[in-house]
């Protein structure tokens, strides 16, 4: 299943075959989804954005119908640095040396790593409902530990999360999405079934755990090294977050200002899934920002 009016293609980056949905005309705009979803999360906003932009929506490595290679022992092949470099190569193969970017959740973590490691590529960046990984670890409290328990659970070594999720992946995905959505969040069953179809793959469950193990290990270490060295994001950054989700309890803009010079943003009245729960409000917030040069 893909976004209405968009084409679906396979694009090789090294040994990885990425599943990519694209459509529209104009400057390039890369959309990166989060956990536990696929590129289909953009179905309500991508067609509108395609009126002004060439919109490229890949499934992240390990998710959706993109390849899910076996994780390295230290999960380094699922680090945000590695995935960011792969997606820069993917965009270049499509003829886009520069592009705008919207990232949600895990995709936003790939996005800000891309902006730090490949500063000439990302012209403007929208981050949906995240803090930088190292900053998120630093503000963990008992509420975070309960509401977003999956950060620690998925990062556990030894196969525990893979085994437990694999016993009933449909239940786990349904529970996760519905518990993170806001009071008005509604996900039609055909949408959930598309997410379930992809999430059932044992390789995807392993890849998702590697994604979170990388966040605990190599991603956190890279972030902290950047903070120590004073590296900053050079492009303008717009931060949007759901005021009904756990991130909203933090001084979000103040934290992001430690990482970038041009930071702006606001809350939207929804849960974690802004593009699906509040697509009109999200589009209103991003259109003018993305048009600016």
Give the tags:
single chain, 293 residues, alpha/beta, Rossmann fold, eight-stranded mixed beta sheet, 17% strand, globular
Structure description:
- The chain has 293 residues and is of the alpha/beta class.
- It has one domain: Rossmann fold.
- The protein contains 14 helices and 8 strands.
- The protein has an 8-stranded mixed β-sheet, sandwiched between helices.
- Helix 2 packs across helix 3, helix 7 runs antiparallel to helix 10 and helix 10 runs parallel beside helix 11.
- The longest helix is centred in the last third of the chain and has 15 residues.
- It is globular, with a radius of gyration of 17 Å.
- The two termini are 34 Å apart.
The CATH architecture name reads: 3-Layer(aba) Sandwich
Name of the CATH first level = Alpha Beta
The percent range for strand residues is 15-25%
CATH superfamily: Alpha/Beta hydrolase fold, catalytic domain
Helical content stands at: 40-55%
Number of helices: 14
Which structural class do you get from the secondary structure elements?
Answer: alpha/beta
Strand segment count: 8
Global Rg: 17 Å
Question: Within the CATH hierarchy, at the fold level, what is the topology?
Answer: Rossmann fold
Distance between the termini: 34 Å
| Contiguous uncertain segments of 5+ residues | none
In round numbers, the mean pLDDT is 96
Widest sheet, order of strands: 1-2-4-3-5-6-7-8
- The domain tally reads 1
